Amino acid sequence: MAPVVEAMAPVERERLFHCEQFWLWRLRGQSPFTVGTAGVRAYWSALRAPGQVECGGATYAAGKGAVWLLPAVVGACAFQPRGVVSVLEIALPVAEQ
Hints:
Elements: E1 4-7, E2 12-18, E3 23-29, E4 33-35, E5 40-46, E6 51-55, E7 58-62, E8 67-70, E9 77-81, E10 85-93
Antiparallel strand pairs: 1-2, 2-3, 3-10, 4-9, 5-8, 5-10, 6-7, 6-9
């Protein structure tokens, strides 16, 4: 499956894989952007450059190569890159209760 560009701003967002079990995107750019979605567990990895995650009123450092878990209850968080970043975001749908 070829990557599908879903957005070009504020960063390039490519859907790399999408199935019933998980979804995978690559985000590239240097502008601030959102990671995570309300109601969806997400893992993401900052591959290329550091930055910071702003979530729930707190700020956390995100170093090059860092891996983060965003629980579904956290929702969307802001990522402020310091330089050009390449981020992989993996989302796991929450099972219906």
